[in-house]
Amino acid sequence: MKILLSWSSGKDSAWALHLLQRKHPGAVGALLTTVNEAMNRVAMHGVRREVLEAQANAAGLPLRVITIPHPCSNEIYESRMRAAVTEAVADGFTHAAFGDLFLEDIRRYRERQLAGSGLTPLFPVWGIPTDRLAHDMIGAGLKARLSCVDTRILGPSYAGREFNATLVADLPAGVDPCGENGEFHTCVYDGPMFEGPIRLHPGEKEIREPFAWADLTLAADDVRTSAFPVPGSSSGSDAASDAGARPRGGRRNRTWNTNTARKNREA
């Protein structure tokens, strides 16, 4: 068994890695992430590439990056993903794992896209009640910050906050404790799946309705670039590149299906 793990930079994919490490020690062979090539950030999450690479280093795993254009159509997105799958199979990968929690349409989409590809889909976090899951993550030492929030549901002040028991208690009624419906996305910086912590600075906030991002940077990074550059003449954000390239009714930009009609992904 050789597993390619869809890596969003968030807590759900990190917890999937942790569970896979326990159940199949040594079987995860690489992380796979889609990055918006215009902004050099994880789509939807808005996580910088250097932070993404620091996560892979902390996990002790190779990082495979697929760049997607801005904007990205379903056709382009799925073509690049097919190429990545073909390459993975040629490199001996047998399974692809995802951090999806309970959205059936997203799971069906992944299963459909991988059918006959040579990669068998795995869903190690699937079906765990999200209140218990959040409690387990926090109790095991997983540490993350909210990198993106949907301002139609949560105020911009939530961006950059620690994902901890206090935050979960502060979430408004109806908000999933793990943000599975796209209410928020996270960037993990420590936990049992890492060899050591990543030192993150919360950075500035960027608000482009209906989303707000925290520009999380490595603590030792002195680069002072534009937090969220706008490609071309568009006023869109990283979220804009995700429009329309995920099955309708789906949630967020999971790394396997980075584009979403509802602009929501793997938190």
Question: Would you give an account of this structure?
Answer:
This protein has 267 residues and is α/β, with parallel strands linked by helices. It has one domain (3-242): Rossmann fold, CATH 3.40.50.620. Helices cover 25% and strands 20% of the residues. Strands 1, 2, 3, 4, 5 and 6 form a six-stranded mixed β-sheet that branches. The longest helix is centred in the first third of the chain and has 17 residues, at 74-90. The protein is globular, with a radius of gyration of 17 Å.
Task: Give the strand content.
Answer: 15-25%
Q: Briefly, what CATH class?
A: Alpha Beta
What percent of the residues sit in helical stretches (DSSP H or I)?
A: 25-40%
* Termini separation: 26 Å
Within CATH, the superfamily carries the name HUPs
Largest sheet, strands/sense/barrel: 6 strands, mixed
- CATH third-level topology: Rossmann fold
Q: Helices and strands, in N-to-C order?
A: EHEEHEHEHEHEHEEEEE
Measured on Cα atoms, how large is the radius of gyration?
17 Å
How many separate structural domains? 1
Please give the CATH architecture.
3-Layer(aba) Sandwich
Helix/strand class: alpha/beta
Q: How confident overall, as mean pLDDT?
A: 85
- Outline: globular
Contiguous helical run count: 6
Number of strands: 12
Residue runs with pLDDT of under 50 for 5 or more positions:
221-265
